[in-house]
Every structure is written in C-alpha cells, then in structure tokens.
Amino acid sequence: MMQLRALLRGVVGLLLAALLWEGAVLALHIRPEYLPRLSTILAAMAATPGAYWDGFLRTLAETLLGFAAGGFVGVLNGVIFLRLPALRDMLFPIFIVSQTIPVIAFGALVVLWFGNTLLAKAVIAFYLTFFPVTVNTLLGLNAVDPRQVALLRSFGAGPGTILRRLQLPAALPQIFVALRLAASLSLVGAIVGEWFGDTIGLGVLLLQAMYNENVVSLWAAILCAAVLGTGFYAVVAYAERRIVFWGAEQ
Amino acid sequence: MSRATQRGLLGAVLLLGSWEALARGLALPAYTLPAISDIILATWQHRSLLASAGWYTLAEALLGYAIGCTAGITLATLLILLPPARRVVMPAMLAINAVPVAAWSPLVLLWLGIGMASKVAMVALAVGFTIFLSALAGFDRQDRRAADLLRSFGAGPIALLFRLRLPAALPLIAAGMRVATVRSLIVAIVTEMLGAQGGLGWIIYQAVVQIDFVQVWSAILVASVLSLSFFGLITWLEQRIIFWR
C-alpha cells in the first residue's frame, strides 16, 4: 500500500514536471534550439522508436556488463587487500593514480586494444566502477569489530567462514554505497566509450545529434540516458533495501 | 619513511619496470603499448606544446571549479535559509542530476560553441552538483541542542548559519571539493575531445586521428600530473583550514 502510494506520487510528480516544461517553453517563448517542447521531443522519439530502443538496449548491456565486472573485481580486490596488506600498500597508490587518468583518453586505447566492440565499452565502464567498490569494501571489512572475529575464531571458524558469516555481511552497507555510485559511473563509461566510433548506442545518438545540430534528437537521447540512469540506480537501491534489510544508511 | 610508503614505491617501481620490460622485450608496437621511457622522452620533446595545452585545460578546469564551488555552496546556503524553496528546487536539481554528466556535453557544446565557455560550463555543472549535495548534507547535520542553545542566546538564522552550521558542514564540503578536483579536469578533457580550439583533450583527439599513440600517452601523463597536483593542493589547504577535524 505504501509502495503504491509512493509510486502514485512519483507518477504525479513526473506529470507535473512534464506540464511545467511544456508550459514554460510556450509561455516564455524559449527558442527551440535551446529547449524544445517536451511534446516535440516525444513525437520525435515516437517517429523512430527503433533507433532509440536499440541504442537503449545496447548501452544498457554495456553498462550492466561493466557494472557487474567492476562490482565483482572491486569486492574481490577488497578481500584480497584485507588478507595481504603488503599487496594493498603496493597497489593502492597505483589504483589512485589510475583514477586521475581521464577516462576518455584511456578509452581511445581501450577501443584500440579490444576493437570497436561491446567488450571495449564494458571495459571502460569497468574501469570507472571497480575503484570505488574496492575502497568501500576494504573500508567495510576493516571496520568489523575484532572482538567478533576473535569470538568466531574461538568457536573454531576458519578464515573462509569468518569472511562469509561475519566480515562480508558487516561490510555490505558500505559496499552498497559504492555500488550505487558505480551504477551512475558505469553508464557514463558506456556512453563515453561509444564516442569512439560505434554505430548503435545512446552515446552514438548524442554525438550524431550534435554533429547534425539537431537539438530535438539530442534532447531525446538525453531523456533516454536519464531514464536508463535513474532506472538502474533505482534497481540497485531497491536491491540494497532488500539485501541490507537491517539498514545502515551511511 | 613508513613501511606503507616503501611498499608503495616498490609497487610503482615494479609496475614501471615490468611495463618497460614488456614493451621493450616483446617489441610491442606503439599503438599497443609504448615503452615508458619513450613516453617520457616524447613528453620532454613536445614540452612546449603540452605545457600550453595543459595550461589551457587547467585554466578551464580551475575557472569551472571556482564557479561550481561558489554556485554549489551558495545554492545550498539559500535552501537552508529558505526551507520552503527546497521542495521546489530539489526535484529540479535531482532531475538534472539524473542525466549522466557526459550526456550534457554535446548539448552544452551546441549552446556555447567550441571555445572555452562550454568547457567551463561543463566543469561548473559537474563540480557544482558534487559540492551542492555535500554542502546540503553537511548543513543538515547540525546538532539540535547546540542550535537550541544558540537560539536561546538570541541568535538569528544568519548567526546560526555562520556559527554552527557552516563549521559543522565544512568537513563534508571539503571532502566534496577534494573529489571534485579530479572530476573537474576529467570533465574539461572529455568536453574538449568533442570539439575545442586547444587543450589536452584536443591534443588527444588529434593524436588519435593521426594514430600517434605515444602522443596520446604523453597527454595522459600531463593530465595525470595536473590532476594529482590539484588534488594535493586542495588536500593541503583542507588540512590547513579545517584544523578541528
């Protein structure tokens, strides 16, 4: 019931925003090269739904692949660094430096290495996501109460059991904070990756619209990206509420 | 030197060494992986070109960073002083934020042209959001009892803001400003690659088109050094100014 009401409020909010957009453009005489009417944009999308739908799916696939790989490697890194502090001290500064490299410059190389494939875009999305997940996993694992670890060990639990039963569950709230961030970042990686000459994808639609100075289709692509980003973020946040039901927001 | 620093240096030396050995030993072509010594040499040879491009990008990033920080903190402050405005402004801000930053770049380029203005605007947008959200979270963190105490001494909302909320929010704002340093340079370079008259992103784009991958790596090197220096500077300032944390 609560969820239904929240959903209803969301829908009403969206409708109000759409009306406000349409009304503002009409009332303030905003020139269409800055902000076209929402109805014009939606009509453009309805005219060629195939291009937007294909682009949406393609970018979604790249985003999901990069996100999954980045999340997995990030958690794995966190666990490895917890076990081997020497390795952490050696690799962590390198990871930090790697994050200052502008992703788009790196993207040129990735596309060269992996070809102009879905994999190349997923690698770029991965590159943006694995680091925040690594950092937060390590933070969460390190914050576990050592007395609890000692207690489990006194019951004869091995390191694997302690990790599964105590450390990972305790680190989950921290990990999910990073996963929510990673959801947004992986989409950015996928879109930017598509700028190196691809044929399908939301990033391609953005670039084509810019070269053609077609503001309406540019806004249509922006709307698609917003829907994709918000939807993915909402799914991750929902999973967080389900899995971390004991709730440790921040 | 601490143990961690030693290990960090060891890691860096090992990485650079194996990179050099791999590139030299397997005689990898430059488009796969140039040797690190070649990259440094090429950076030195093109130092005047790279330096001027670096300045160009840094100027865009710094200007956008300053505008973004000011706008973000100002907006957060206004929303704290006028709580009713928050219910109107927040949904709009969240809607703008829902679009991935990179997706705004083509539109801003169309609006503001390929000069510096579009890059400054993009950096200001990306930095502004980071700062705005962390400032708002920081302002919301005030201690109720401390606020009641100050109010009982006759402090108005402005005094409350400067005496209590701002000091409490500063650590979070500073954390946002630290994250935003690296982001400002990255956004400037990303936007430059879509169209610009100069800067590191433009150099990278040109080098990719000319298949000059040593040049790409040189520009990446310069960009990383700039990002790290900017990050270091802000961290140093933070430790100086926010001494109570």
List unreliable stretches of 5+ residues of chain B.
none
CATH class of chain B reads Mainly Alpha
Largest sheet of chain B: none
Number of domains of chain A: 2
The biggest sheet of chain A amounts to: none
Number of strands of chain B: 0
Q: Biggest protein-protein interface? A: A-B, 46 and 45 residues
Tally of individual helices of chain A: 10
Name the CATH superfamily assignment of the largest domain in chain A: MetI-like
Name given to the CATH architecture of the largest domain in chain A? Orthogonal Bundle
Q: What quaternary form is this?
A: heterodimer
Structural class of chain B: mainly alpha
Q: What distance separates the N and C termini of chain B?
A: 25 Å
Q: Quickly give the CATH architecture of chain B.
A: Orthogonal Bundle
Shape of chain B: globular
| Helix/strand order of chain A, N-terminal first | HHHHHHHHHH
Helix content of chain B: over 70%
Radius of gyration of chain B: 22 Å
Helix/strand class of chain A: mainly alpha
Instruction: Estimate percent helicity of chain A.
Output: over 70%
Mean pLDDT of chain A: 85
Describe the structure.
The complex is a heterodimer of chains A (250) and B (245). With 250 residues, chain A is mainly α. Chain A has helices at residues 2-28, 38-47, 49-83, 85-98, 103-114, 118-142, 146-154, 159-193, 202-211, 215-243. In chain A, helix 8 packs antiparallel against helix 10 and helix 9 runs antiparallel to helix 10. The mean pLDDT of chain A is 85. Chain B has one domain (49-241): MetI-like (MetI-like fold, Orthogonal Bundle), CATH 1.10.3720. In chain B, helix 3 packs antiparallel against helix 4 (83-98), helix 3 packs across helix 9 and helix 3 crosses helix 10. Chain B has helices spanning 3-25, 36-45, 47-81, 83-98, 101-112, 116-139, 144-152, 157-194, 200-209, 213-241.
